[in-house]
Amino acid sequence: MNMRQQLVQTVETTMSTDKRLILLLGDIGVFGFRNAFKNFPDRVYNIGILEQATVSLAAGLATLDFIPVIHTIAPFLIERSLEQLKIDFCYQKLCGNFISVGASYDYAALGCTHHCPGDVGILKNIPGMEIVLPGTSKEFDTLFRQGYANGHPTYYRLSERSNSSECNVTFGKAEVIRKGTRLVIVAVGPALEQVLEAAKDFDVTILYYTTVSPFDAVTLRENANCSKILLCEPYYTGVLSSDIITALFPNPITVDHVGVPLKLLTNYGQVEEHDEHIGMTSNHIKKRIEHLIG
Amino acid sequence: MEMKELREKVIRISAKAQEGHIASALSILDLLWVLYDKVLRIDPLNFSLPNRDRFILSKGHAAIGLYVVLAQKGFFPASELENFGKYDSFLGGHPDKNKIHGVEASTGSLGHGFPMAVGMALGLKIKKYDAHVFVIIGDGEANEGAIWESALLASHHQLTNLCCIVDYNHSTDRALQIGDMAQKFKSFGWETCLIDGHNHEEILSALHKSGNEKPFAIIAKTIKGYGCAKMENNPEWHHKFPRPEELPSLLESLR
Prior knowledge:
Strand content of chain B: 5-15%
Order of helices and strands of chain A: HEHEHEHHEHEHEEEHEEHEHEHH
Largest sheet of chain B: 5 strands, parallel
Number of domains of chain B: 1
Strand order of the largest sheet of chain B: 1-2-3-5-4
CATH topology of the largest domain in chain A: Rossmann fold
CATH superfamily of the largest domain in chain A: Thiamin diphosphate (ThDP)-binding fold, Pyr/PP domains
Oligomer: heterodimer
């Protein structure tokens, strides 16, 4: 089951047990949610292609103790509606869930208008917004159930690709995948797949973050047993640098990055071609590890 | 309550704080007073009742108008108006729902309050509450695309419990002429009426109407700065505060 299919199953089953949940679709996923439309006609809406008003409308629903879930494609949900997310949800301290598809360059062949590697960095700068990147479908299910009703606005970033191994994840907490001595690798969401392959022959610590905000500084501090950090993020690179430096202050550290470089992605093709061009591959990560370890 | 007294309060607290959009507040003061005095089913002592009516000031910069009315109706002590605009005051240049008893939505960024009101009306309809949502938008605010997204949503979902009052004072005609607002709302599937936004009988009559399977828009013809002769339709006063030496003549020109 891919993440989109898991989204349907998770939201439908949660709606059956929690009458506060209300689903607003931006004219995507309508067929997938056909049973939800039938089973919860008062709480499932194909609201249309008007993301700004949809986010504000959802805030209005949240004031009446509904828990809105808004689902559409990442750039339209986050970049077009940014002020509505900031003011209507974060400033007003309302609970809502924003679930995107089309992470970074998942819609590779559709081009720049449908790419969204900037979403995490943008939202990271809005106090109060929680950001979650599940690495697998099951992880999404776990993280959504733990977080959807916690009173905060939360962004769930779904990916077309999943990690091949499941982790026992907890909302707001990083997982220690393994302990080593030469390097600490911080892997975010679906970047774990390439990290595990790249690091298999090295004596390194791997920390796995599915919640980017709030940042779990405790797990990093407890496990950062050397001064070299490799940060692997599946979006515009460097978003967690400040959190890492702050968490480990005043220790002198070296932070290297693998992620999407800060430029508009104007090519098409396949996801794997983008990976290759920007270095989101296990081979490239392996070279970064070798360079850092020396 | 004498409207002249409310207008004087608006000007005095703005002069004291050296902040506030006086002319915008005076433009909607009659609308606000009739709403809170005669129409809204809300109780300052039991404000959190789920089936209460809701009022949203989507043009949040007119906040001092709302503040003087809320104080007059007992939502907070009138003495708090003296603190308007101070660093630790709960009364700022735009209303904050998490600070002010009686405020339903934090507004200020134009084009946000109206869609929030649509969401509230939809939520009340789903919960089958017999409550109404009233929202005031500005004609300048109607430059925002989200206003028309919201108008479309409200009519599609047949939100007969929603009333949008347009403060049509033509203040932004200099930038973008928006034309016949009643016709525009009609074309988006609303019922509409056109009133004098400073005539209390017309305001009350309009607020008691509602759309038949449609949301209802009241196009209120208003004068920016209404009631203060020196400010009326004078763009200089959009975001200007009286200097101490100006205050006596401004108050003297109040009707």
